[in-house]
């Protein structure tokens, strides 16, 4: 009953506050956006005109004091979270007490957030305090941080609070000028300045580095929230164009200094021919030397595990940076039946799932310029290829609801294992010819000779194209492909690189998870490279390292022979009676000077404790005596 009584009190408080507002001024509807943008909700409270803060500052402060006294029950949770100094900092900024602000700014984080998500800079902007905003910016406040406050209901669910409490805190400690039904996730200080139609604050924020191109969670830039044809909109439009132009110039200069080829080679071993073809084609598009009416289409051919998918991922990251929606991967083996075309573009009207849309169309709506990977396209049904034909030809796609998606700026990449055996064999033959010319190419570490291997056009026409035509059975589909890219088997030098990278990965994991240092010599790289299988590519190297090295490390760790502070040295030996190299592990535990071979310690069981003493130094035996006794050795 007590909880119900308090809840009724809160409802009564809200009603009295709203009645007070209605008595102070007449309300009418105001849209934040241009009149032609009607789908967005109003972000300001409905009132007779867009409220100018400097004219109503006294009324708002009186309302804040009313909320402070009467709404203590609604802010108990946030008061418990805020430290006194931080709470005082927010209050000083909110009320514009500039004299006291100077003392607080000396030893405080100017980018601190309120427990509900906003920063002090947003608080100063939304309350129209120009001088406070300027001081915060001079002290290093970041104008490009986004608001973590979503809306009343969602924030209440996340914080475990009642929506009325969230509403009271939002209005008391942030602003009463905002629509409590709107969503503010991702709003920057510039979004709020545009929302309040404050030209002075917009200029100040841009002067201190505010990015007018940042989009909020709804995908809108600050200019979307300015009044149509107003001074703020004209200013933001000019600054947005200027910022985008500067950004393009920086990207152009960055591409000159650090070309795409170098970026891709940092993550992809070998495949220099494939990297060159893709980089040259993308460069044409970036610099305006491509057909803008058609998207770029690639077909990647080669064996499994040779870098086709990784190249597509790295290309998407290069173009779109950290945008997760910019890389779309579809496994075409899921579209082997005719009816599964609906999964791609959406079911037609009257069928189940009509309102949900297709897997491709939904993702392309989010990012029409995405890099789209159709993995193993040769496994898809011919009707799916018909859909792709329209996509590649016209750069648009019509979903099951009849809506058209324009995606002429997208890059489409298909991968296939067709002719992979022929390509692999031809690549090996070409490499043998190169090895005859450079027999000692691995004898010197300094002399790294790049394989300048090129597949002749005659071989492509005579061998590969007939295979492609025989499978796809349509020349118009192959004719829409800008470049067919061939991925060749790895050379010996590239295999050593793969082994080195895989060992580096496991060494980092061992250091991070188990505090174990792992070292190795060149002999281990050569021994593991012998496990390469041309049909499985880099995956065969990965599995070889796991089988022959990681298995031994895991077993030694389980039996307690290596642990926190240990150093393990891995080497390869070539016994006369063995068909292949034998991987040996030597360990130096913490506080021990000498390395000890440990591979036989867990592959054979000693007959007695004396036998164990002969095999293991006494220091290592003492460290692991409890483990040895527990296992009955």
Automatic annotation (TrEMBL):
Keywords: ATP-binding, Membrane, Nucleotide-binding, Transmembrane, Transmembrane helix. The keyword Electron transport does not apply. Gene3D superfamilies: 1.10.8.60, Ankyrin repeat-containing domain, P-loop containing nucleotide triphosphate hydrolases. InterPro entries: AAA+_ATPase, Ankyrin_rpt, Ankyrin_rpt-contain_sf, ATPase_AAA_core, Clp_ATPase_C, ClpA/B, ClpA_ClpB, P-loop_NTPase. Residues 294-438 form the AAA+ ATPase domain. One of its GO terms (molecular function) is ATP binding. The chain crosses the membrane at residues 63-82. The keyword ATP-binding applies. Residues 490-584 form the Clp ATPase C-terminal domain. GO terms for biological process: cellular response to heat. It holds the Pfam family AAA_2. Coiled coil: none annotated. GO terms for cellular component: mitochondrion. This is Caseinolytic peptidase B-like protein.
């Amino acid at each position: 009953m007590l909880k119900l009584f308090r809840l009724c009190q809160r409802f009564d408080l809200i009603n009295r506050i709203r009645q007070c507002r209605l008595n102070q001024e007449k309300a009418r509807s105001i849209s934040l956006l241009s009149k032609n943008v009607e789908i967005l909700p109003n972000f300001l409270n409905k009132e007779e005109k867009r409220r100018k803060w400097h004219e109503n500052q006294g009324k708002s402060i009186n309302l804040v004091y009313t909320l402070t006294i009467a709404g203590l029950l609604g802010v108990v949770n946030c008061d418990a979270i805020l430290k006194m100094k931080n709470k005082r900092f927010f209050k000083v900024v909110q009320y514009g007490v500039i004299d006291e602000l100077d003392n607080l700014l000396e030893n405080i984080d100017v980018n601190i957030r309120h427990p509900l998500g906003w920063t002090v800079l947003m608080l100063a902007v939304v309350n129209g305090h120009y001088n406070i905003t300027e001081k915060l910016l001079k002290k290093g406040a970041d104008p490009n941080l986004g608001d973590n406050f979503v809306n009343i209901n969602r924030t209440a669910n996340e914080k475990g609070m009642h929506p009325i409490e969230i509403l009271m805190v939002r209005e008391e400690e942030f602003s009463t000028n905002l629509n409590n039904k709107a969503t503010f996730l991702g709003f920057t200080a510039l979004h709020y300045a545009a929302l309040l139609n404050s030209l002075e604050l917009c200029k100040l924020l841009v002067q201190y580095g505010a990015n007018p191109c940042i989009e909020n969670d709804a995908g809108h830039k600050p200019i979307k929230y300015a009044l149509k044809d107003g001074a703020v909109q004209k200013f933001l439009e000019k600054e947005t164009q200027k910022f985008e132009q500067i950004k393009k110039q920086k990207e152009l200069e960055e591409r000159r200094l650090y070309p795409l080829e170098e970026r891709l080679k940092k993550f992809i071993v070998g495949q220099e021919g494939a990297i060159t073809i893709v980089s040259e084609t993308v460069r044409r598009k970036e610099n305006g030397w491509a057909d803008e009416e058609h998207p770029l289409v690639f077909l990647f051919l080669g064996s499994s595990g040779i870098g086709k998918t990784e190249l597509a991922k790295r290309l998407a990251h290069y173009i779109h940076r950290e945008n997760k929606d910019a890389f779309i991967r579809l496994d075409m083996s899921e579209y082997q039946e005719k009816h599964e075309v609906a999964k791609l573009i959406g079911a037609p009207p009257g069928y189940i799932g009509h309102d949900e849309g297709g897997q491709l169309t939904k993702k392309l709506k989010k990012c029409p310029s995405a890099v789209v990977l159709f993995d193993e396209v040769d496994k898809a049904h011919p009707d799916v290829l018909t859909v792709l034909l329209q996509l590649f030809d016209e750069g648009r796609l019509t979903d099951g609801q009849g809506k058209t998606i324009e995606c002429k700026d997208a890059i489409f990449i298909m991968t296939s294992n067709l002719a992979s055996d022929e390509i692999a064999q031809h690549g090996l033959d070409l490499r043998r010819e190169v090895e005859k010319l450079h027999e000692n190419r691995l004898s010197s570490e300094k002399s790294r000779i790049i394989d300048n291997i090129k597949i002749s056009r005659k071989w492509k026409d005579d061998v590969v194209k007939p295979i492609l035509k025989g499978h796809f059975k349509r020349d118009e589909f192959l004719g829409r492909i800008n470049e067919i890219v061939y991925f060749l088997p790895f050379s010996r030098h590239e295999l050593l690189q793969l082994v080195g990278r895989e060992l580096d990965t496991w060494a980092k994991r061992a250091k991070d998870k188990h505090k174990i240092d792992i070292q190795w010599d060149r002999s281990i790289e050569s021994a593991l490279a012998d496990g390469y299988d041309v049909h499985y590519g880099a995956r065969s190297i990965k599995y070889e390292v796991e089988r022959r090295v990681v298995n031994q490390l895991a077993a030694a760790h389980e039996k307690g022979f290596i642990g926190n502070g240990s150093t393990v040295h891995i080497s390869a030996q070539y016994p006369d009676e063995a068909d292949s190299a034998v991987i040996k592990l030597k360990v130096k535990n913490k506080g021990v000077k000498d390395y000890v071979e440990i591979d036989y310690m867990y592959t054979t069981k000693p007959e007695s404790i004396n036998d164990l003493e002969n095999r293991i130094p006494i220091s290592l035996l003492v460290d692991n005596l409890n483990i040895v006794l527990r296992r009955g050795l």
